[in-house]
Amino acid sequence: MSSLSGKKYTIDIFGESHSRAIGVVIGGVPAGTPIKVEDIDAFLSRRRPSDGVHSTTRREKDAAEILSGVLDGFATGAPIAVIIENADTRSSDYESLKGVFRPSHSDYAAYVKYGGFNDVRGGGQFSGRLTAPLCAAGSIALNILRGRGVEVTAYISRVGAAKALSYKEVGDVEAFFTADKIREIKSAECPLLDKSRKDAIIEEIAAAAKVGDSVGGIIECVITGLPAGVGEPNYDGLEGLISKILFAVPAVKGVEFGVGFDISAMRGSVANDALYFDGDRVKTRTNNCGGITGGISNGMPITFGAAFKPVPSIYAEQDTIDIKNRKNTKLSISGRHDACIVPRAVPVVEAAAACALLDLLI
User: Fold this and answer.
1) So where are the chain's domains?
2) What span, in angstroms and rounded, lies between the C-alpha atoms of 152 and 156?
3) Tens of pLDDT along 48-93?
4) Contact 118, 111 (CB under 8 A)
5) Do 152 and 357 contact (CB within 8 A), yes or no?
6) 4-361, CATH topology level
7) What's phi and psi for 153, nearest 5 deg?
8) Which residues contact 182 (CB under 8 A, 6 or more apart)?
9) Fewer CB within 10 Å, N- or C-terminus of the chain?
10) What residues contact residue 170 under an 8 Å CB cut-off, 6+ apart?
């Protein structure tokens, strides 16, 4: 299993959904960097389930414990090890799933790959629970980036059929994402660019939950303050590095930058981002490329969206197979599951992008 990401800012995630703890070993944090466990816990609190958006009833405290690499509140230069205890587990909920696979879950593929020894409890190593240590690493990266004037802000732009405001519609992205606006977005239970869409988003989730179903959505992210020239061509381009970590997040099935796939329907005269001088700064009149050209930042805001599939663990009856008895069967899943993970995944997207950026900036 490859759980190590990064070359300079490295994150090595370990654990399973129902193991005693999950965690991450972080390398490359410059010695002397202030590290506060309270900051990590505050960031982790943003991905905890909320009663207001039909989340799982599993209630983990998600209190981080720093084991090494920090002394008297500062990074020592050694790898930083962080663990998060799994306390609210109910492994008995998954006894019936050994050999009866959840559709669109990792169950069958992992059964084949690991010869049936994979841990199905809570999804094991494939669980969204493993995004908690990613958030721990992302929290540290975000604080370092903020000290360099870089802000990473994610929010919901769609849940199922319910659309919310997108960066594609706000015009001047830099002017829109003021410090006050960023604080408003990050402090919201349901992070949106337009708060008036909150009820529609929650109603969409509630409608799916009512019939034992689930719903997916889109999380967008805007990165401001990143100077031009960050990134490497070819295999270490900004799009590739950000996407690599995003696709390690369970349920992410698509990533687009700037206007994304819509650019394929444009002519070059429309798609091209015309350059101009704004005082001494070089800017572009549009940002269709999402602030990245040639895999390198061009000084405009980095903009991207990540598409999340519906949670595969649903209460509605589904067709599946019983591998031990070699027959087709029906499955109704019990246990505790989100009807929609999109609201909880917003800080995860920020964390993933921050880790990729810091790896290039250190």
Assistant:
1) 4-361
2) 14
3) 876 555 555 555 678 999 999 999 999 999 999 999 998 865 655 5
4) yes
5) yes
6) Chorismate synthase, AroC fold (3.60.150)
7) -130, 120
8) 151, 153
9) N
10) 176, 193
Q: What is the pLDDT of residue 1?
A: 44
Q: How many Å apart are CA 14 and CA 3, to the nearest integer? A: 7
> What is residue 6's predicted lDDT score, i.e. its pLDDT?
84
Alpha helices by DSSP H, listed for 34-130, are 37-44, 107-113
- Give DSSP secondary structure letters for 174-197: HHHS-HHHHHHHHH-SS--SSGGG
Q: Where does the pLDDT of residue 301 fall: very low under 50, low under 70, confident under 90, or very high at 90 and above?
A: very high
DSSP SS3 for 9: coil
- pTM for the whole thing? 0.92
Handedness of CA 156, 86, 107, 14 (dihedral sign): positive
Region of 312 (left: φ > 0; alpha: ψ -120 to 50; beta: rest) is alpha
Q: How many CB atoms lie within 10 A of CB 104?
A: 15
Tokens of 55: 């989340």
Per-residue pLDDT, averaged over 25-34, amounts to 97
Whether 347 contacts 47, CB under 8 Å: yes
